[in-house]
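#struct-pred
JK: can someone run the complex with NDP? inputs below
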Amino acid sequence: MKIIDGKKIAAEIKKEIADKVQERAAKKLAIPHLAAIIVGEDGASKTYIESIRRACKEVGFISSIYQYAENISEEELLASIDFLNRDEEVHGYIIQLPLPKHISMEHVIAHVDPEKDMDCFHPVNNGKLFLGEAKYLPATPYGTVELMKRAGIEVAGKHCVVLGRSNIVGKPLAMLLAEKSAYGNATVTICHSRTQNLKEVCASADILLVAIGKPEMITADYVKKGATVIDIGIHRIPDPETEKGYRICGDVKYDEVVSQCSAITPVPGGVGPMTMVCLMLNTLHSAEEKDTK
Ligand code: NDP
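RT: done, structure tokens with the ligand placed:
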């Protein structure tokens, strides 16, 4: 049984990115620059943005954070996006979600220049993903397939069951796995809250990829003996027995499932660390693409 070490693989990728940044600096090419827009005071969002800033520093990227008050108007936010679209020195940016209710997420996403859309939320980038022509990939699905590739999990020809159909995780992940590419060539089933016989469908998977947002819902009876289990979920749940009063877990009941499978991602330390490095990879690709223009 193999425990897939996402932390180690993410660190290797970070090192590769940092080496490329040094090579770029030696050749006097532009240093990749990632910006982030954050609106409001949501604690989890602030932590995520801070970890982006730290990761940029580690690999040698430039980062800029645009922090706005909760009551910023939609016009003001769109103007800030226009500014980033025009800024020749910024290679890409993300907009941290959720946005306040008075701002339309659709308007905001449509306003992003697809060339700088590091989260790959823009309909043009989603369309390109669907056509197998993606320039950037959405960070979490990208992290998931890159993790499997680097961990030596063979996907081609396998039955992959993707549990969850959100626009940012489940759907793009299923598309990547089905694609005729180095990440794909799998036979893919997508499950969701209306799937009938969910347990049976999951138990038919060679590779079960779980993104449902339900702490530890996937127990051993959802998993075929010898399957690979990729847990994308991440939760902080109360646990009075720990010093901090909480623990981090995934959508999979790890302790129960671990003996059932041939390979599994832990939470934390599995898919999570890959998301950030994939955002970095998108930014590096954007900078490399700009070199050729
Ligand atoms: P969403 O809530 O947007 O989507 C959840 C999906 O799971 C939906 O398609 C929903 O079905 C389905 N679902 C929910 N409950 C059940 C159920 N009981 N049975 C079957 N299907 C169910 O979540 P996200 O895709 O945004 O995130 C999924 C998980 O991944 C979360 O735990 C999140 O924290 C984690 N995550 C981790 C990231 C990382 O970097 N590691 C990044 C992003 C997310 P329906 O469509 O019918 O409602």
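RT: quick notes.
The pocket of NDP is lined by residues 140, 164-166, 168-170, 191-195, 198, 211-214, 232-234, 251, 271-272, 275 (CB under 6 Å).
Residues 139-272 form a domain with the Rossmann fold fold (CATH 3.40.50.720).
JK: thanks, will look after standup
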